[in-house]
Design goal:
Keywords: ANK repeat, Chaperone, Endoplasmic reticulum, Membrane, Repeat. Its main location: endoplasmic reticulum. InterPro entries: ANKRD13, ANKRD13_C, Ankyrin_rpt, Ankyrin_rpt-contain_sf. The protein has 453 residues and is α+β, with helices and mostly antiparallel strands. It has 13 helices and 16 strands. Strand 11 and strand 12 form a beta hairpin. The longest helix is centred in the first third of the chain and has 32 residues. It is globular and about 65 Å long.
């Protein structure tokens, strides 16, 4: 028989499809020994048509032995399927506490590994850029009038000298769920020549304290984080960039012409950003009615610096217990593989979710005069990774932008909130004081000042 002929099993499904994802099929079969043999030669990060990795499926189907095998072999944890859900999202939905803990630890470990892998390139890039001072203005806006009134603005100042980097900001963080904003006088220091945990420091200048950005969490901190995950909505937000296009913005009422303006000291061409949307999804099939009632109070407590963990009469935390496993999936491998992409039959709990999608009308001003390149900006933004709003800026700048440097741009932060970012000033300088990159002698170390860092 010709080897190129695709054989069929009589059900209309080609045998070739059976063999396309051997690890995934093995998860369905629940054959641990076969899986252990296959994983030696198969790509553990490979996704099927639904965007699921073998780890996604093992979690949804309750194959705990296979989950532990995959984690032991460093299968990627922070990877999303076609609907935006990670293996950790699915583990929270399934409700097995030990699995959630294992995934959370592995995700943090992999994040640390990625930072360390990028560090040499980052330090090299900083060395190649001259010392500079830069100002970035943030104006947060909303189409909801009452929300828009309370949103903050922020003027960030950045100093760079050698492999050292300093960012001064008044905006510490924002809460995704209820748009609460934490203000302060915060300084972020990065020393490319120092090793973790001495390379990243955040200072609270009002309180006169500093905290090293930690690379390891205590068992208690992990347990607290798992309690919070098991008690609240599973949330994912992603900016859709597939259909984004750029078109020249026009000015003038009668005689239309390409819009040009001076932003700070830089001449800029304006472009419309077309097709930009932000989608936010929330899942809560793992929550009881009591959980739903407590959810808002938990978030409010956390954003005010309180504790969301229940304490018993002895002062010990009351940990969330694992949920009862969902009913076994009745979906077969064939049904799963032949279902439309992203619409396979339920494999675990029936999803209870809400989608919020909003399109954004945005503009970006590109300047050929700005002294910094987009590639250099990406290196700078890499340093600011702990700050969520800077992470959003990094994601946007990573798009294929029109020629030049984005001296002014709009980016979505939440479905109802966007940020207008302006690079107001930039200058290369050779007189930046080295003391700017040192923690003042009278500051006291507080390891718990910024619990999310």
């Amino acid at each position: 028989m010709d080897d190129n002929i695709v054989k069929s099993d009589g059900s209309g499904m080609a045998e070739e499809e059976h063999l396309s994802f051997p690890l995934h099929e093995c998860v369905f079969e629940g054959d641990v020994q076969k899986f252990a043999r296959l994983m030696r030669t198969e790509d553990l990060s490979r996704k099927d048509k639904h965007g699921n990795t073998a780890l996604h499926l093992a979690i949804m189907l309750g194959r705990k032995d296979i989950v532990q095998l995959l984690l032991a072999h460093n299968a990627p944890v922070k990877v999303k399927n076609i609907n935006g859900w990670t293996p950790l999202s699915e583990a929270i939905s399934y409700g097995d506490r030990l699995t959630i803990i294992s995934l959370l630890k592995k995700m943090k470990h992999q994040a640390r590994e990625q930072i360390e892998e990028r560090r040499p390139n980052l330090v090299s890039a900083l060395k190649q850029v001259g010392d500079f001072y830069m100002q970035i203005k943030w104006d947060f806006q909303s189409w909801v009038p009452l929300v828009s009134r309370v949103l903050p603005s922020d003027l960030c100042q950045i100093h760079k000298k050698g492999t050292s980097f300093r960012l001064d900001t008044t905006l510490v963080d924002f809460a995704m769920n209820d748009m609460k904003w934490e203000r302060g006088e915060i300084t972020f220091l990065f020393d490319g020549d120092a090793k973790p945990p001495h390379s990243l420091i955040v200072m609270d200048n009002k309180a006169g304290v500093y905290q090293r950005v930690r690379y390891l969490e205590t068992e208690s901190e992990i347990e607290d984080e798992v309690d919070l995950m098991m008690s609240t909505d599973i949330v994912t937000a992603q900016m859709s960039t597939k259909s984004i296009t750029f078109s020249r913005a026009q000015s003038g009422w009668i005689f239309r012409q390409d819009r040009k303006e001076t932003i700070g000291d830089f001449n800029a061409d304006f472009y419309h950003v077309n097709g930009l949307t932000l989608e936010q999804k929330k899942r809560r099939e793992h929550l009881s009615e009591e959980d739903l009632q407590k959810n808002k109070a938990i978030i409010e407590s956390l954003t005010k610096g309180g504790c969301a963990i229940n304490i018993d009469c002895n002062g010990e935390p009351v940990r969330r217990e694992s949920l009862l496993p969902p009913m076994p999936a009745i979906c077969t491998w064939k049904e799963y593989l032949t279902s439309p992409a992203g619409q396979h039959p339920p494999l675990a709990r029936e999803m209870v979710f809400k989608n919020t999608t909003r399109g954004f009308k945005a503009t970006v001003a590109m300047s050929m005069d700005f002294p910094l390149s987009v590639a250099m900006l990406m290196d700078v933004l890499e340093v600011t990774a702990p700050f969520k709003h800077f992470a959003k800026l990094r994601d946007f700048v990573n798009l294929k932008l029109p020629p030049g440097f984005p001296v002014k741009l709009d980016i979505p932060i939440l479905p109802t909130v966007s940020a207008k970012i302006t690079f107001q000033a930039f200058e290369f300088r050779d007189d930046i004081d080295s003391d700017l990159f040192e923690v003042p002698a009278n500051y006291v170390e507080d390891p718990s000042r910024f619990p999310d860092l």
